[in-house]
Amino acid sequence: MLITNSGCSFFEDNKTTKNSNKEQMSQNSKENMGADNKTNSESKSSNEAGRSEKKQTITLYFANEDNSLLVKEERSVVVTDGAVLRSAIKALMDGPQKKGLRKTIPEGTSLLGIRRDGNTAILDFSKEYNKSNDIAEIIERISIVNTLTNLQGIEKVKILVEGKDLIGPSGEPLGEMKKASLDKSGRPVSGMLKNIKIYFGSPDSDYIVSENRNIVTENNSSQEMAVLKELISGPSSKDLYPVIPKGTKILSVKTTKDGSCTVDLSKEFVNNAFLGSAGAEITINAIVDSLTENKSIKKVMFLIEGKERESYSDLEFNKPFLRNESIIKSSKK
């Protein structure tokens, strides 16, 4: 596919928006971030000089005895120098106080590091974290993610093991994880742990690059809807660019038995479209290739406000789009 030079800057407004949003972090969050970014040596030095301590009530998630569900436990913990993330993980490692519950971080696991990057908490555990089987690890992972995302300003959690991304059951890195949905009994809802690959614009605007996400499909919500919502939320990497125009709403998405997926989007998809044919190419291919990661989807058709549209920028738009592998660039160096 031929991509013109006009695409080189069509993502710039979105990048500026992303950067400006980060600058709006509250002063309190900045202070907490600094506290949780401390190295062990810095912590020791601080201890010798005297620390500020205060108690804070946090919600912890522990597993029941058969590891089938998670139970909340309110705990008053001591937070030193504002390092609430570290205090929360230490409380999980210490284990539950209620009877009938069990620890969700494997014995012998050490916390090698913990820091905050914007609204994401990044943890690095020792190799002992990986000694659980897949089913147990899922519950353990949700315990950590849901505990930390209950803290103010934390929306996602990334887990590392010995400095490397935690690998999920699919064999792919899990990346940044959002709070998992639990039913009334504390069981994870069906489909919420599915790991998917979605695509965003490359820095040079010539390709699309993948990111791995955990998606939540609740009740009658489809995987396709979850994929589109993740695309609208934008990339996690600072080096990638959003592909869906600002303000776009998903009106509906349906897939037939023959593998034809129809996506109905609001008028903002057209009105706020990125400039140039390159922008349109990146947008359409990112959506189509993200949806067709699900092998049961063979082609994607677009509607705008329930109606077919002849063109989108310079693209013929009233036809089904097929997966385009040639525009995908590997994120690995």
N/C terminus separation: 23 Å
What structural class should be given to the helix and strand makeup? alpha+beta
Largest sheet, described in full? Answer: 5 strands, mixed
| Tally of DSSP helical segments | 8
What order do the SSEs take from the amino end to the carboxyl end, as H and E? Answer: HHHEEHEEEHEEEEEHEEHHEEEEE
Radius of gyration based on Cα positions: 22 Å
Instruction: Provide the residue-averaged pLDDT.
Output: 81
| Whole-number count of domains | 2
Strand content: 25-35%
Overall geometry: elongated
Q: What's the helical proportion of residues?
A: 25-40%
Number of strands: 17
Low-confidence stretches: 1-34, 38-48
Question: What's a concise summary of this model?
Answer:
The protein is built from eight helices and 17 strands. With about 325 residues, it is α+β, with helices and mostly antiparallel strands. The longest helix is centred in the last third of the chain and has 16 residues, at about 275-290.
Task: Write a structural description.
The longest helix is centred in the C-terminal third of the chain and has 16 residues. This protein is an alpha+beta fold and 333 residues long. β4 and β5 form a beta hairpin. The chain is built from eight helices and 17 strands. The protein folds into two domains: 138 residues, no CATH class; 138 residues, no CATH class.
Q: Top keywords for this entry?
A:
333 residues, 2 domains, four-stranded mixed sheet, 8 helices, 27% strand, disordered N terminus
